[in-house]
Design brief:
With about 90 residues, the chain is mainly β. Helices cover about 5% and strands about 25% of the residues.
Length: about 90
């Protein structure tokens, strides 16, 4: 609340929120629902992992681990969506 004077209502308080970029995660708007925010992360894999598959864990922003599992060949530029792992 802003300053309040006798016979006058309190004025508005405006503030600006700036989000610092994260080293690993990037916030993007959800394509299906504009109200939700998706998190995007790039995971680099070796040639062996791309050809044979892999089982990795990614540490999420809140500290819990997300299992990243692929079996078989992974195509370059593959994008996978892990539901309920984005921002509210």
């Amino acid at each position: 609340m802003g300053d309040e004077f006798y016979d006058k209502a309190a004025s508005d308080l405006l503030f600006e929120v700036r989000v610092m970029p994260h080293a690993l995660f990037k916030r993007i708007k959800n394509e299906d629902n504009g109200l939700m925010i998706d998190l995007e992360v790039f995971v680099h894999i070796t040639l062996e992992e791309a050809l044979l598959g892999f089982d990795k864990q990614l540490k999420h922003l809140d500290g819990h681990m997300v299992d990243l599992i692929r079996s078989g060949t992974t195509q370059p530029g593959l994008r996978e969506k892990y539901h309920d792992e984005g921002m509210p």
